[in-house]
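REQUEST FORM: STRUCTURE PREDICTION
Request ID: SP-0412
Submitted by: Lab K.M.
Chain count: 1
Length (residues): 218
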Amino acid sequence: MLSKKIITIVLLFNCFSTALFAQSDAKAIEILSKVSENYKNLNGFTGLFEYSYSTEDEGLIQTNTGNVTVKGDKYRLMLDDQEIFNNGKTVWTLIKSTKYKEVTINNVEDDADELTPSNVYNIYKKGYNSQLIGSSEINGVPAHEILLTSDKPNARFKRIKLYIDKAKNEILAWEIKDDVGGTFKYTFKELNPNVKIVDDYFVFKVSENQDVEVIDLR
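STATUS: Completed
RESULT:
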């Protein structure tokens, strides 16, 4: 169940309106602006992260780890049984199991509600009110807690909580509520900023993977 939900979230890991500024916390906007500027100036970054799913009734259901590499609007996401390549124009979702391998190919859609590893630090600009709600520690690192609340009644994500490193203006973790009361949490365990990555790294090469079934939906 978690694997399918992770795919949904990834496919669903620039200007503010006057109303957004009026309803958002000025301090939260200041912090998020620094975060956005910080990531925009990087050549790229890689990270090892932990992701978990929990519910109020059952508590923690599952925890896994993954790797992500981001460069501008490009990203490559590696999970236990799948890998997602996105070069900004095309997205390849590779499913791997002991019995078969298949890759689904789609065009990248310009979706204002989309939340991906390459735009999580910018999602606050897309119809969310931002509030600085407190402080906490993530793996011993002091963090701001900022709650993003959608101002659109049909938004896919009503609430997103970001944990921001107070010293480095980096995203340490984020939480998303799903429509059945569950919570996804993503926490960086390692983060390597400003690394150089070739663009080909974000492309799945069909010709070099003849054992993979191709489903082209473009």
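NOTES: The CA atoms of residues 94 and 103 lie 4 Å apart.
Reviewed by: T.R.
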